[in-house]
Records
---
Amino acid sequence: MPRINSPAELEEFRKDVISKRGPNKPCIAVCTGTGCLALGAANVVAAFKEEIKKQGLETKVEVRETGCPGFCERGPLIVIYPEEISYLQVQPGDAEEIVSQTIFAKKVIDRLLYVDPITGEKIVHESEIPFYKNQMRLLIGNNIKIDPKSIDDYLAVGGYSALVKALCQVTPEQVVELVKNSGLRGRGGAGFPTGLKWEFARKSPDETKYMIVNADEGDPGAFMDRALLEGNPFSVLEGLTIGAYAIGAHEGYVYVRQEYPLAVENVTLAIKQAEAYGFLGKNILGSGFDFTVTVHRGAGAFVCGEETALLASLEGKPGEPRARPPYPAVKGLFGKPTNINNVETWSNIPLILNKGPEYFASIGTEGSKGTKIFSLVGKVNNTGLVEVPMGITLRDIIYEVGGGIPGGKKFKAVQTGGPSGGCITEEYLDIEVDFDELRKVGAIMGSGGMIVMDEDTCMVDVAKYFLKFLSLESCGKCSPCREGIRQMLKILTRISEGKGRESDIGLLMELAESTRDASLCALGGTAPNPVLATLKYFRHEYEDHILHKRCQAGVCEELYKAKCTNACPIGQDVPGYLSLVAEGRYEEAISLIYQTNPLPGVCGRVCTHPCTDVCLRAETDEPLNIPKIKRFAADMAKRKGYTVKLEKGKAKEEKIAVIGGGPGGLAAAYSLALMGYRPTIIEELPQLGGMLRYGIPPYRLPREILDQEIDFIVNVGVEVKTNTRVGRDITLGQLQKEYDAIFVAVGAHKSLPIRVPGEDLPGVKGGAEFLREVELGIAPHPGKRVAVIGGGDVAMDIARTCRRMGAEVTIAYRRERKDMPASEEEIADAIAENIELKELVAPKSIRRANSGLALEMDVCELRDFDRSGRRRPVPIEGAVITREYDTIFSAIGQTSDLDFAESLETKGDTIAVDRHRLVTNLPGVFAGGDAVIGPARIVDALAHGKKAAVEIDRLLALKSGRDPYAESLEKIKVTMTLPEVVTEQPMAEIPKLSPEERIKDFTAEVELGFDEETAKKECGRCLRCDVSWMAARDKSMAVAG
Amino acid sequence: MDNGKIDKIIDKYPSDSSSLIQVLLEIQSENRWLPKEALAKVSERLKVPLNRIRHITTFYKAFSVVPKGRHEIHVCTGTACHVRGAKRVLGAVQDATGLKPGLTGEDFRFSLETVNCVGCCALGPVMVIDGEHHGKLAPAKSKDVLKNYE
């Protein structure tokens, strides 16, 4: 290797390196960062090398093993130069084809390209892939271009020209000035101005000073520094050397955690190469400046990221922090002035020297300049490293770069700054990301970890997770940190186990504040942040855990039996009845179902089954078809004439009115009747059932099933007053006088207007109103041509109903099919019935036409992401289509008609209640269901009904001085054994009537139900999450060593 | 581990207390645990009292003062892996090996540890066995992976 003795020699050598390569020489760059290696990149490299050898191309084609470009999700990644063709998820078997097709024949291989999930378009060039396109890759952009084990590669992309500039063109003071002017702030977390830090160290009067690269990236979930040190160690060393020159230090250390073996290897090799070339060592580039660097491996302690702890560790001591001041700039390593910066800070230095501080300061916000690398991980589609300018919004990072949340789940929060940081909710996704803005919302930038969490993440668990981490990592030196964290963890643990106390939230706050204020170092000082942030934004989750022993996300395992049961608002014992059906114990199965659900035949048909969404069997093959098994059990019970034995409480005197005969009202009346009350349901329409009857068409829910199940409820002991509208036939005030308690469950029966000109024309109708009229037998025929505007289940119901009335139907939806709120199965069924689905059209106006109504629609395209996490449809200028229809239905949502009860306090369009007890502002008046939460699921209404009954009883019992009703359920013994072997077997599909058959008859049920054999077999697929394998496991623990 | 090897390692570093952690890390990676005799040797050569060495070996997570199994399993419980279900993967591994984190089986086939983050969050949940990464794990898959290590 040559030693380079002057800037002129360096330029000479650089020219030589570049000319030897030739700009058109094909090069296959394979990412060999830790992520891609874990996915088999080493075998891909070997396969390319072998293929090239086989074809005798060793001198003509280069295979380069590079650092990490960031798109780890799709690794192993390769880029082919000079064309910059990007292939993803490349396997060794692809090597031959790539060499012969792409390198030789210059043909792009389609199947290895990135496919845009929105347009379906295949993207050839790396820079055009949305993940990269929306970034600003000043620091990690070179990673895929260079082999981190080759200093020549670094020189070829202009490496070490910043060092030349520093050493030979400016004074050390000027370097400090340049960095100060750039506005660079430390990337390690606190964001202290780097130039200022350097100035302190520079001014410290001491012969010996030390420089340190802090690469102890201990924040779990962050790997920016790993990628930089692994992928481009030279840029870090170059920055460090420039810093040493500016400060006047001659010795430096790279403190890197040993969990990053590849980073250790690459930086060690880079130092050797830099020494050989004369970029490190004595008389660097002939400038007379000396500087040496040593690698020091951290031995696994998070606290060592704290600078004083890091210094102790470097001295060979336990990594315990000490109080500051004196700051390291005055008294650091071995008592000498020391300057410590984070990896990413160092790698910004060459950039500032090369492009000038003005350029650097032109990027970013007022207070935070340049770019920042984030490790975007967790529940996000494009996981990986992203480098973005300061000031970008969180929404852009998560959606434009990250591609949104996988599996259509709902975004919940993003945690920035790791264990010392905080979480940010949907509400704040539009803030501009920089050091100061993040702090304002209770989070911190930290080193750049960004963990996206969706609805399946429990925030109590997140706080517990970080506190557990911190309690293990607290060095123990000062008691506020050691004990404070331990006590907070203890409280969080008991909350997550269902043993929380009502006073716990206050106690947590108190502990958090004292730990924050009294700890010695930043570890303790920031440790309460996860608790404080989750308490600030997710207090309701804490309350649910403490008061209701419920973990909605299904994470805190002690609080539930199985995920399906937990996801069900009424807590159906799903594994229990599945097991009973599997054994043919149908009578017990239906009894078990009835213990929590008075409408099994209804739910088995039309429940939106949140249980299947969380079924763990999906990890093996597909989830279980839980609702259809419930339907089977209910049908079986009817066929065999099983009756459910009910135990009723002692008769009670108080009078209770239930307003609304829908699922919420029915559930409340049922529970109240079982308690011994004789509630009265007051219903406006002629029959009970609410939305079940007047919203769901009979081909989905046969009326005979609905009637039977309602009759059963009424027969338990419920009075019914139909054709009685509160507000018209009787006032709420009168009811309050007559009854001891009232439950309002009026549903949401009023269609929202579409808000376009012409919506008042005859022939433009509300969808919900239409479905009601159909059921009442008073609906006018919609005509031959029908349009339904909307994409939810109601839109499907209207479309399919009209289809059965002989109409040609078009569903007009402003986004795409995948965005439709209706269940995919419903959409598929509608399309099978020859209903047209028109995507990406939004109504513009309606006017009278020659033969009916002309509906003018804007053709839309999807642009940026809106608050729902879906892309916003925006009309394309000038693209308007017009079609004629006889009837146009609006089905874009519903609201409650609350005119009857002006005295009830509302929140928007819903009734305001205390969510724990469902009480309204009026004494003795409770409310629930759609009228409280907006159009929701049937099971939510059932859950509210039951809850209201319990609360009403508690209130009345208190008034009359008796104990509240204690529910006693019959113990049904379920066999508790795990399936012995699990073999792949897809979910059993429900047989259906053919589309031709089913559109002939309005009442013909589309779904036919399982036969006995299929039902039993499907039940056999259940993995029995309810059987505790933990107990069995703990017994067989081996202890050794 | 014989004394010659230990001497060789110590010789690579400046013979003072600041080299302690680096020397111990190298012995750990060579021998996979730190026997008492090795620590005594280090104490003598670097002139660091044994009690301080004990302090170091228990303070830092990388060191083990008990023998390790033939295969070292590190289940990543970093935040990214955690929100993607690392807990259940760890449960499955515990189930399959009969070990709790920090323990080694009586047959010395496996040692089980958790690790805070191995920096391949995109592949979470991740488990590292003898330095080899296994990503995108589900509980059942992680059990299958273990079968390849005898």
Note: Chain A touches chain B through 66 residues (CB under 8 Å).
---
Amino acid sequence: MKLRRFFLLLPPYLWLLALFLVPFLIVLKISLSDIALAIPPYTPTLDIGAGWDSFRTFLSGLDFENFVFLTQDDLYWKAYLSSLRIAFIATALTLLVGYPIAYGMAQSAAEWRPTLMMLVILPFWTSFLIRVYSWMGILSTEGFLNQLLLWIGVIDAPLTILNTNVAVYIGIVYTYLPFMILPIYATLEKLDESLLEAAEDLGCSRITAFWLITIPLSRSGIIAGCFLVFIPTIGEFVIPSLLGGSQTLMIGKVLWEEFFNNRDWPVASAVAVILLLILIVPILLFQRNQQKQQEAEQ
Amino acid sequence: MAQTEFAPWNDPEAKPLIQFKNVTKRFGAFTAIDDLTQDIYAQEFFALLGPSGCGKTTMMRMLAGFENPTEGQILLSGQNMAEVPPNKRAVNMMFQSYALFPHLSVWDNIAFGLRRARMPKPEIDARVDEMLRLTRLEKFAKRKPHQISGGQRQRVALARSLAKAPKLLLLDEPLGALDAKLRQDTQFELMDIQEKTGTTFVIVTHDQEEAMTVASRVAVMDEGRIVQVATPAEIYEAPNTVYVADFIGDVNIIEGAATPSGDGYDIAWAEGQAPFHAKTQTKLSNGQRCYLAIRPEKIGIATEKPEGADNTVQGKIIDIAYLGNLSTYHVELPGGKMIKAQTANTRRLSRRALTWEDDVWLSWTNTGSVVLDR
């Protein structure tokens, strides 16, 4: 029996080892190395065939210089903070847009729900990159949105939306909306209608029943949705680089520049390691929420 | 100690608490309640009994305010309830699923309605504690609904619906989710609480035994109409239709043609067999089709023809259902008609004389059967 269990659990652990732990250790190692004009562009490199002495020289070549460097240039901590702030605001906006949609879906007639669900997932069928590009067409100064607003007469001169943080928020809300809607919808759909009737029976108006029953009972869905948006948004690169402007400071963009423009792999790796450490906190909170939800359902 | 009988429905002076006046409720083309008129009095324990789909739940939901009548009026203490939303009615409901708020503790569930009524905090505390005592839940006040048993949840639901001291408490299949033993205990508990609080209870159930146990009056419903309203004893002993007789308890129905004779009728039920005689108030014309309803326990069963019995008929035992305290004999009459006769097993099994294939005599008195015209 124990052997059977072992073999059953082996594939996922091997998967994690090969595709998460090993790459992470490589990145960690590079972050402790020094930049060099070579291929690969850092020293020291490990030569396994050369024996114990060369391994010792290899270890002595590793240091925390790059991490110290991150604290010296204020670009980095500003980028981290700005990423957190943008992710936080974008998550709040996504919740604000996503909750009513999820609520509407859960309230709709049962035969409509699969269709609505389909419509929420539909955007995933096209490339993410193409969808973000098309937002450039919508938001640019000569774009569809400005033309529409000018035509209606709401504005006299075109608005500058593209290459600002507003465009970044629009892009994030648009891209991550399904991740917010689906978990919230899942909790709302399970909500027992008779609970709301009971609340009304005990003296609640419809609105108070919503605040006292519906919102608390969809809490786990709200939390799950928020984390599913917040976690990937912090490291987001495509949206800020395509829709954002020069003042949009996000750590994903910084990482890209270190890696491709400066070819400084060690500093880029250090940025990535710190990003991962920052993300561990929300990921752990997310896991705890999922676990609590599972326990409550049992 | 003798008590005066509680029967406000027989008192022409008594004012009903609830009045259904020609209430009709339609859902699209489906008529759930069909021109229904009924009074329910204060402090009654009124049971709506019927198969699923008979409209009993719709009646209850109209009382709670979740549905409005399509036609007619429902009055509560003389006031028309049509425009009053559920949260403004002095009516509380105990839901079939209990509908306890899973994110709130037992205490907060019970306090929920009181808080919405903006009752001062010390009064809420006192009232919740009183409800916990009444339902014997003191120990579980801090638990969440998923941390207590089904029976305890049922009591929380009851406490929560009683907390606001409603004029009328509606119970929708309240004991449906409990197992048989717990259900019996809870039935008596319900009656006890109803008596203590003096609240009017309307209970919906499809379990006739439950309705008979708890209710002061039972309304048997069928297809959106009330077929008969009476005390449990009356409903059992004097059903007004075959439907009611059949729905409540076990019954033998013998179809026949009536001929007036003495203070009742002779009912010819099969060719070449002596007719059965029954005393009755029912008026039938000569030769009219009618039904004789006889409860199995009213039928005597013996190996010898009993002397001086009003009605006797010979048959053969086909089947015996042994229920422990009772035995039900399925006896085939000449012509193939099956009759159930029931006896109390006052003797041990080995000493009983009757067994399969035995020829036996069935007998009952002239007043033991009920004559029904439909």
Note: Strands of chain A lie at 34-35, 42-43.
